[in-house]
Amino acid sequence: MDGSAAIAWEPAQRWLEDFRTEDGLFAVDAHQRIVHWGDSAQKILGHSSQAMLGRPCYEVLGGVDGGNFRFCRRNCPVMANALRGRPTTNYDVCTRTQAGVPIWVNVTILVARPAPKAAYAVHLFRDVSERRRLEQAAQRAVADLRELMTEAPSRVEGGVSPMPTPCLTRRELQVLRLLACGVGTQQIASTLGVSPITARNHITNLVTRLGVGNRLQAVVYASQHHLI
C-alpha cells in the first residue's frame, strides 16, 4: 500500500477495529489487498489477520457462484463498482475455510471513499451453507415430484380461461422452496432470519397468492407451473 493510500485509510481502519458484529468483516483497498481482517472473519473462515493482511482477496477466498464460475477474481464486479463509488447487490459465493471445508457465504458490500484516489470495499459476510443446502434439497425434491406426477395439458372448461400464474417475489420463492423440502415454520424462520410469526405470515400470503388451500397444495401447484 502506498503512503497516500495508507494515510487515507487510517480513519476508516480505526473505526472498523472498534466495530463489533457476528458477521464476518474484512476490507480491501483499491488493489484488492486485504487491509483489515476482523475477529469475526477469523471465527467463520479460520484465517488469522496476520495471515490475511496484504494478500489479494481473490487469491485467498476464490469464491465461486452456483454455476462454479469464479466470482472472486482480479477486477471483480465488486471492485469495479467500488472504484466508482457504487454499491453492489448482496450475493452468495462458495469459498473454503482455512481447513479446506467448503462454505457458502452471503456477502454485503459497504463502499467508502476516504480520499479522491483511494477506494475501499468493506465486506460483511455470513454463513448461509444451511440455507443453500435446504434450497438444493428443495430443488431435488421438486424434480422428484415432477417425475412422479403426470402433467395433463391445460384445458379450458366452459369457455373460461385458466387463471394466470402469479409472479412471486424473491422471498415468496424462498419460502416455497423450503416448503417443497418439507421444512416447518420454525426452520423457515431460522433460515430466513425472521420470527416464527413472520414466517407463518409469509406462508399464509403465499398460499393465498397461489389460490390453494394448504402448504402441500402450494408445492404441487408450484411444481405443475414450474415455479420451482
**Poorly predicted segments:** 1-9, 151-161
Helix/strand structural class: alpha+beta
Note the run of SSEs as H and E: HEEHHHHEEEHHHHH
CATH superfamily grouping of the largest domain: PAS domain
Beta strands, count: 5
Q: How much strand?
A: 15-25%
CATH class of the largest domain: Alpha Beta
Biggest sheet: strands side by side, in what order? 2-1-5-4-3
Q: Which range best describes the helical content: under 10%, 10-25%, 25-40%, 40-55%, 55-70% or over 70%? A: 40-55%
Counting DSSP H or I runs of 4 or more residues, the number of helices is: 10
Mean pLDDT: 79
Radius of gyration: 22 Å
CATH architecture of the largest domain: 2-Layer Sandwich
Brief rundown of the structure:
With 228 residues, the protein is of the alpha+beta class. 45% of the residues lie in helices and 17% in strands.
Fold and architecture overview:
- The chain is built from 10 helices and 5 strands, in the order αββααααβββααααα.
- It starts with a helix and ends with a helix.
- The chain has 228 residues and is of the alpha+beta class.
- A 5-stranded antiparallel beta sheet has the order 2-1-5-4-3.
- Residues 1-9 and 151-161 have low confidence and may be disordered.
- It has 2 domains: 3-127, Beta-Lactamase (2-Layer Sandwich), CATH 3.30.450; 130-148 and 162-224, Winged helix-like DNA-binding domain superfamily/Winged helix DNA-binding domain (Arc Repressor Mutant, subunit A, Orthogonal Bundle), CATH 1.10.10.10.
- A hairpin with a 5-residue loop joins β3 and β4 (102-115).
- The longest helix has 20 residues, at 129-148.
